[in-house]
Structure prediction request, 88 residues.
Amino acid sequence: MSFENLLDNLIHVLRDRVRNGEITERRLARITGISQSHLHNVLKGVRVLTPELSDRILREISLSVRDLLSSGTTVADAEVPVIQDPVG
Prediction:
């Protein structure tokens, strides 16, 4: 699974949580330290979610990358990198 897929899954999870009323855009923006308009544009797909902002969001809403991997994909669907050469 690529980094872009993880970001898409994060945005999908955030949209669902806002839609379900678990959190508001205003509260999410406040706890992550960005403006509500910036967050709104990220959720709409107008602005790109940076790795730094995605880390802050994951930390503040207690999500992990593993949670993002399991949302929308099964373990069989996820690409697992395989090391073919000796490491070190």
